[in-house]
């Protein structure tokens, strides 16, 4: 395992990934203190060792101030938003007092706060007070917004709030392409608001927030990438990023961006579009992973790099109602919450962070729990990541010896399961591998 491994939620060519990581590096250098540096070192050491106990606290927080949104993006994690109200968490916004309590106990070890989740952060006017409170505690604050409901007269207020990084979700360079994904948004208003914020920065003489136009790349909009680059220059944004989203399996063929050998690459200079975003292996190996091609003999076995989930060490997610999750998945269902924040003390939070539930999830993330024993009531148990190395071994991959040894200790009958897969195509992880 790499000592410094940063796995991103959305992926793209190497240059794009470096752009994303540069913002985290900026937060680290700007807000680092000796206490935060020591905490980060303890966290990374525990993650590197695969320990289920962490000597430090999460140094990247994700806090959802609201899950109310004015758009209905097709592949949003909460795309079936009717379930949120009828069967799940419901809609609402976090109380400022709850937010302050979370910040007060975790600020001394926190480098960055991603203050967004399933909703549109700028819908409520008290967002500026939220940002200012965290910024004054020496935390780099980021929000991700579609800006189509933002009022441009608040541009100076946003700049003055202390916001460090603004990600703008605008997935097209014309109303026609934008409307297909940003359902319910307004392309021209989004562009107008981006410019208003950039102009406010100039007026106030501020370098922040770093305005980051995020352009999800699909088959219907990838031809507009050169146009988006030119528009970004005219608007004055700091960066425009073209990234590959996680597309649901049933929509991949229709939506996925085409490779160089399928269409002329409009994104010259940023690398080739991968056919399966987020999977870093050759296309032949991907075919084996999906079960489309079987390995015939040892010489044909593809290799894969294995990385554990970093969320359980570096980060934590707070829903608007105080529900706590290990990551930003599973936010619709309160039943996935590991706990509920009600104003716990620092010591109580530490006890929770290294309590039985979190330790179990870390063992799961480090492939120390057999798949049959993974708790399917948790977000982690339903996630593909802890299943992935078992699946790859089962389907014929050769993994790093360190991980093969761990997998065989966890599931001693893996070789026989590999034989079963080769004969029948059946796998223990069937429930989480459909459409891989």
Structural commentary:
With 436 residues, the chain is of the alpha/beta class. Helix content is 39%, strand content 9%. The chain contains 19 helices and nine strands. It has helices at 14-31, 34-49, 82-86, 96-106, 127-135, 155-160, 175-181, 187-204, 225-235, 252-255, 283-289, 311-314, 346-353, 356-365, 379-382, 388-394, 401-410, 414-424, 430-433, and strands at residues 60-63, 112-114, 140-145, 165-169, 210-216, 239-243, 315-318, 323-325, 339-340. Strands 6-5-4-3-2-1-7-8-9 form a nine-stranded mixed β-sheet, sandwiched between helices. Helix 4 packs parallel to helix 5. The longest helix is centred in the N-terminal third of the chain and has 18 residues, at 14-31. It is globular, with a radius of gyration of 22 Å. Mean pLDDT is 86; it is low at 1-12 and 266-279.
Mean pLDDT score, rounded? 86
Q: What series of H and E elements makes up the topology?
A: HHEHHEHEHEHHEHEHHHEEEHHHHHHH
Structural class call reads alpha/beta
Strand order of the largest sheet: 6-5-4-3-2-1-7-8-9
Helix count, per DSSP? 19
The count of strands amounts to 9
Gyration radius, rounded: 22 Å
Which percent range fits the helix content?
A: 25-40%
The low-confidence runs, each spanning 5 or more residues with pLDDT under 50, are 1-12, 266-279
Proportion of strand residues: 5-15%
Query: What would you call the shape?
Result: globular
Largest sheet geometry: 9 strands, mixed
Give the termini separation.
23 Å
């Amino acid at each position: 395992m790499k000592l410094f491994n940063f796995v991103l939620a959305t992926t793209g060519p190497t240059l794009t990934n470096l752009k994303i990581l540069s913002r985290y590096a900026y937060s680290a250098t700007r807000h680092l203190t000796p206490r935060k540096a020591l905490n980060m070192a303890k966290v990374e050491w525990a993650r590197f060792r695969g320990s289920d106990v962490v000597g430090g606290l999460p140094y990247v927080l994700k806090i959802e101030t609201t899950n109310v949104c004015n758009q209905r993006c097709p592949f949003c994690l909460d795309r079936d938003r009717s379930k949120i109200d009828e069967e799940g968490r419901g809609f609402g916004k976090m109380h400022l007092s709850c937010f302050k309590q979370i910040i007060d106990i975790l600020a001394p070890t926190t480098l960055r706060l991603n203050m967004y989740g399933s909703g549109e952060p700028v819908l409520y006017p008290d967002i500026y007070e939220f940002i200012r409170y965290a910024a004054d505690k020496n935390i780099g604050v980021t929000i991700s917004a579609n800006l189509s409901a933002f009022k441009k007269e608040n541009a100076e207020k946003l700049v003055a709030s202390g916001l460090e990084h603004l990600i703008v979700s605008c997935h097209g360079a014309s109303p026609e392409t934008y409307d297909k994904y940003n359902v319910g948004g307004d392309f021209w208003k989004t562009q107008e608001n981006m410019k208003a914020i950039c102009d406010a920065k100039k007026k106030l003489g501020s370098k922040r927030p770093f305005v980051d136009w995020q352009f999800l790349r699909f088959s219907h909009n990838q031809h507009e990438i050169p146009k988006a680059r030119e528009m970004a220059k005219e608007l004055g944004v700091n960066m425009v990023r073209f990234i590959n989203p996680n597309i649901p399996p049933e929509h991949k063929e229709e939506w996925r961006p085409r490779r160089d050998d399928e269409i002329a690459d409009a994104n010259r200079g940023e690398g080739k579009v991968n056919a399966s975003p987020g999977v870093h292996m050759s296309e032949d190996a991907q075919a084996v992973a999906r079960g489309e091609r079987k390995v015939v003999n040892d010489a044909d076995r593809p290799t894969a790099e294995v990385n554990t989930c970093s969320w359980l060490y570096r980060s934590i997610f707070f829903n608007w109602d105080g529900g706590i999750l290990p990551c930003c998945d599973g936010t619709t269902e309160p039943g996935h919450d590991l706990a509920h924040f009600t104003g716990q003390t620092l010591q109580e939070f530490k006890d929770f962070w290294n309590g039985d539930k979190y330790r179990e999830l870390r063992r799961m993330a480090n492939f120390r729990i057999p798949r049959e024993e993974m708790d399917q009531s948790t977000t982690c148990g339903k996630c593909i990541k802890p299943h992935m190395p078992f699946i790859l071994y089962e389907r014929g991959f050769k993994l790093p010896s360190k991980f093969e040894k761990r997998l065989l200790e966890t599931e001693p009958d893996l070789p026989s399961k590999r034989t079963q897969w080769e004969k029948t195509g059946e796998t223990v992880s069937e429930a989480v591998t459909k459409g891989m």
